[in-house]
Structures are given as C-alpha cells and as structure tokens.
Amino acid sequence: MPEIQEAVPKYLQIANFIKDEIVRGDRKPGEEIPSERQLAVEWNVARPTAAKALNALRIQGLVESRQGSGTYVRDPQAATRARERYQRARKFGRIYATGDYAEIKSAEVVDAPEHVLEALALKGNARVVRRHRVTFSTVHGAVETSVSWLDASLVEVAPLLVKTERIKNGTVRYVEESTGRTAAYARDQVAARLATEEEAQDLGLSGPDSAVLVYRHTVYDAGDRPLEFAEAVYPPHRWTFEQEYSVSE
Known about the structure:
alpha+beta; Arc Repressor Mutant, subunit A; Chorismate lyase; 6-stranded antiparallel β-sheet; 3-stranded antiparallel β-sheet; 7 helices
C-alpha cells in the first residue's frame, strides 16, 4: 500500500502518484482509474479525500469521468508541451511516454536563419545545429514535427547533436550534462499559420495549404543565455492548452 506523507496534502499525493503512472505510460488511454471507494481503501483515506484527488486529475486533463461508468485515462489529444517533457526527463530519465517515439530525420550544421539568430542571440554569419524530428503516437500516428536549433560551437563538447539518433533524456538535458550550464527558465510563443511542404509531409496533411499550430520554445540558462531554440508544429486536431475553472465566482 502506498504511504501517506504528512508534508503534502493527502489528495495531492494520490493525484501525483496516479499522474506519474499516466506520464510513464503505465496507465494507457481508456484504462479505468480506481474509484473513490477503491482509492479510499488503498490509501487509507476518507472518500472525500479520494474524490478530491480524482478531481485534481480531471482539472489537469489527465482523466475523464463517464456518467454511470467510472473514471478513465483520457485519450491524449493535447500536444505534449516542453514543460511536461522536461519533467518526465528529470523524473524518469526519458522525454517520451510509453507509446510515443521520435524519428530524427536530420542532424546537421547549417547557416542560421534570421529568426534563429535572434532567438539564440547569435551575431553575423553564425552556424547552428539543426535537429529535425517527427514524433509519433502508436494511437494517432504522426503528432508533431519539430526542429531544435543550437549554437554550432556546442558540437565540440556535445557531438551527439549532429548524429541522427535519439538523445534519450532530451537535447537540453544532454547540453546541460555536456557543458555544465543549467537550464533555468523558458519562454513559449504559440501561433497558427499554413504548413510548409516539409511539415505537411511529416504530419500526413493534405498539402501546404493546411493550417498548423506552431509552438516556439526558447530555453535560457541562469545567465540568461539561450541554450536551445525549438519550433514544434502540430496538426489541427492537437490542442496545446487546456484548463478547467469555475465560472461561479
């Protein structure tokens, strides 16, 4: 039986335990979550505490309740945001949940486009690493195409950046370990536009006239220097943000 820790509210301990199971992929989409009564018995808590834990999971968009049936892990239509991948990498040593995987299409040093120069605070004719990947779900197929951009000078100490193989714990964590620089915070920007030909092909869209959602993500170290600039592109059916809130107050 899991043990209760007094420093953290009981309902959050229960919710976080189940959340970790979902994030790791131990609980699959559509799988039923224990009921209030089952959680109350398993964790030795009152049923209102168990109910509060399930509600916390619902608010986070991880589970859904079905009238007269029970509570189930949601089929993930939401795009996995960078924050969730960092949390998974630091906690479990990998950035993808079970059932998700990425294929690295290319990893090379190229001339930096203007917007990448600006994002990485580089000057002149700087060269950058361009890592192009497509992320797949065993349930939905191709769900994301993305490009990570990094200063080409990092290749000297982080040679895997230009190899077409997955970096299990993610590029940012790998750069941290290779350079001693620590990621401190990140900035995200989201916008919609038409897909490029490459993006449409990666995501299996009908053509470059398809609309996509673009997620620009810049990671900074403690000295406010950019570590990585990434552009992730999602097809129309993927959500990037979801929350539940009260409208009665």
